[in-house]
From TrEMBL:
Cofactors that this protein relies on: NAD(+)
Domain NAD-dependent epimerase/dehydratase: 3-254
Keyword Oxidoreductase carried by entry: no
Metabolic or biological pathway, per its Swiss-Prot or TrEMBL entry: Carbohydrate metabolism; galactose metabolism
Protein name, as recorded: UDP-glucose 4-epimerase
Keywords noted in UniProt: Carbohydrate metabolism, Isomerase, NAD
Organism: Microbacterium azadirachtae
Catalytic activity: UDP-alpha-D-glucose = UDP-alpha-D-galactose
Record-level GO BP terms: galactose catabolic process via UDP-galactose, Leloir pathway
EC number(s) from the headed UniProt entry: 5.1.3.2
Length: 325
C-alpha cells in the first residue's frame, strides 16, 4: 500500500515524499508541475503528472497504486497574488480539495492529511495563536484553506456511519524555510528566504518592509519553521492514522516564540558571508506586528519540535539554492 502526495514535486511536497520513504511508507506523487519541479521527485518514486482537478485521474491513481491515504499538499499558495486571482485560487484550493475527497470516497480511501495554513487566522487579536483562535482569513488564499478544512470536517460527518469513515487532520503553519536535501530548494518568488537569496546572488540589497512595528527590534515577528520538520510532522500524522490512534482535526506547527525579519537578515549576512545593511521600505498594508503559533498540541501527538537554529535554516536553504546554479 502507498500514500499519495499531491503536489509532491513541489518544495514542501518533495520533502514529504522523502520523509515518507525514509519512514517505510511508499510515496506516490501527483503533480501538474505548475510550480513543482520534476527533478525534485526522487528516483524510483512513482510520479503521475496531472491536475488534482482531474477527477478521473485522481481516482485512477488511487486505485492503481493501492493508496491507503492522501497527504494533500498541492494548491495555489500565494496569499498576496490570491487577491488578484481569487477565482484561480478557489478553483485550485477549494474545488481541488473537493475533487480529491470525491475520488477518495469512490476508491474507498479514508485517510487524509491536509496541508493547511496559518493564514486561516488572518490578523488575530492575540500574538500567540492556538488551534481554537478565531479564524478570520484576510485573503482568498486563507479563505480557501479554511474552506478546505470545512470540507474535510463535513465529509467526516457524512461518512461517520459508513464502512470507510473519513479520518483527517489539517496542519497549519506560517513560513516554511531551509532545505533537508541539497537538491531541493524553495522556488517561490514571493517567500522571504528565496527573495533575499536572489538579491544576494544578484549583488543587490535586500529590503525590510517597515521597521517601526511594536516588536523588540521594530520588524515583524513570525514563525519560521524548517521544511524538514514540517515534512516529519506530515509523516507522523500519517503514521498515527495507520496505527489507528486518535488524531485532532487540526494542529498548529508553530515555533512558540518566532523570529523577526531583522533576525533573519542578520542570519543571512552571518551565514552567507555577504555583509549587507538591509534597505528599509514602507510597511505592507495589513501586516501585523507579531503572529506566532504555539506547537504544543502537535508536540504531544506528532513529535513536533524545532530541530534547527535560525543559522541552520538559512545555511541549508542557501546551500541548496547555490547548488541549483
Amino acid at each position: 500500500m502507498s500514500w499519495l502526495v499531491t503536489g509532491g514535486a513541489g518544495y514542501i511536497g518533495s520533502h514529504v515524499v522523502r520523509a515518507l520513504a525514509e519512514a517505510g511508507l511508499t510515496p506516490v506523487v501527483l503533480d501538474d508541475l505548475s510550480s513543482g519541479v520534476a527533478s525534485f521527485v526522487p528516483e524510483g518514486v512513482a510520479f503521475v503528472q496531472g491536475s488534482i482537478l482531474d477527477r478521473e485521474l485522481v481516482e485512477r491513481t488511487l486505485r492503481e497504486h493501492d493508496v491507503q491515504g492522501v497527504i494533500h499538499v498541492a494548491g495555489f499558495k500565494y496569499a498576496g497574488v490570491s487577491v488578484q486571482r481569487p477565482l484561480h485560487t478557489y478553483a485550485q484550493n477549494v474545488e481541488g480539495t473537493r475533487v480529491i475527497l470525491e475520488a477518495m470516497a469512490a476508491a474507498g480511501v479514508a485517510k487524509i492529511v491536509f496541508s493547511s495554513s496559518a493564514a486561516v487566522f488572518g490578523t488575530p487579536d492575540a500574538p500567540l495563536v492556538v488551534e481554537d483562535t478565531e479564524k478570520r482569513p484576510a485573503s482568498p488564499y486563507g479563505e480557501s484553506k479554511l474552506i478546505g478544512e470545512w470540507l474535510l470536517r463535513d465529509q467526516a460527518v457524512a461518512t461517520a456511519g459508513s464502512e470507510t469513515p473519513l479520518v483527517h487532520t489539517s496542519l497549519r503553519y506560517f513560513n516554511v524555510v531551509g532545505s533537508a536535501d541539497p537538491t531541493v530548494y524553495d522556488v517561490s518568488p514571493h517567500n522571504l528566504f528565496p527573495i533575499v537569496f536572489e538579491k544576494l546572488l544578484a549583488g543587490d540589497t535586500p529590503q525590510i518592509n517597515g521597521d517601526d512595528y511594536a516588536t523588540e527590534d521594530g520588524t515583524n515577528v513570525r514563525d519560521y519553521v524548517h521544511v524538514g520538520d514540517i515534512a516529519l510532522a506530515h509523516v507522523a500524522a500519517a503514521q498515527r492514522m495507520v496505527a489507528g490512534d486518535p488524531i485532532e482535526a487540526a494542529y498548529n506547527l508553530g515555533s512558540g516564540d518566532g523570529l523577526s525579519v531583522r533576525q533573519i537578515m542578520d542570519a543571512m549576512a552571518r551565514v552567507t558571508g555577504i555583509a549587507f545593511t538591509p534597505a528599509i521600505g514602507p510597511r505592507r498594508p495589513g501586516d501585523p506586528d507579531r503572529i506566532v503559533a504555539t506547537g504544543e498540541l502537535a508536540a504531544r501527538d506528532l513529535d513536533w519540535r524545532m530541530r534547527h537554529t535560525v543559522d541552520e535554516m538559512v545555511r541549508s536553504g542557501w546551500e541548496a539554492r547555490r547548488n541549483a546554479g
